[in-house]
Amino acid sequence: MLVTMSQSGGPPPSVFHMLEKSVGRRVLVIVEPQYGYEGVLAAVTYEPPGIWLSNAEAVILRATIAQPFPQVVSKENRSEIFVNVRNIQRLEVLHKGK
After folding, report:
1. Which residues are 35's β-sheet partners?
2. Is residue 7 part of a domain?
3. Is residue 73 part of a domain?
4. pTM (2 decimals)?
5. How many domains in the chain?
6. Long-range contacts made by residues 7-16, C-beta under 8 angstroms, separation at least 24?
7. pLDDT-flagged residues of the chain (< 70)
8. What gap in Å lies between CA 75 and CA 12, rounded to an integer?
9. In this predicted structure, what is the pLDDT of residue 24?
10. Residue 98 within a domain
11. Which domain holds residue 58?
């Protein structure tokens, strides 16, 4: 999805609307190629632009030649966490089976 930045330099409102639809669902938030957070999307804030995760865990991701898509290899409990939208590289809504 191609999204242009708004006049204020932040993400457009449509990004927040998409995030708000996922409140209460388990998500994986990638903030660096090998690091991210997994937790329940608890809230979306506009100022500062970000998301709150509850029951969060910090995750380490690894990719190999045989498995080019990064997989979670390690988790560490973090309780609740705030992630600024500008730091998010990718956000995945996880299915109930995970």
Report:
1. 32, 60
2. no
3. yes
4. 0.78
5. 1
6. 10/49, 10/85, 10/86, 11/49, 11/85, 11/86, 15/85, 16/44, 16/46, 16/49
7. 1-13, 97-98
8. 32
9. 92
10. no
11. 13-93
DSSP secondary structure letters along 17-74: HHHHTTTTSEEEEEEETTEEEEEEEEEEETTTTEEEEEEEEEEEEE--SS--S-EEEE
Contacts of 7 (CB under 8 A, 6+ apart): none
Q: Which residue has the tokens 């509850």?
A: 54
Residue 61 · residue 33 · CB < 8 Å: yes
- Dump pLDDT digits (tens) for 21-37: 889 999 999 999 899 99
CATH of the domain at 48: 2.30.30.100
Whether residue 17 lies inside any domain: the answer is yes
Question: 3-class SS at 95?
Answer: coil
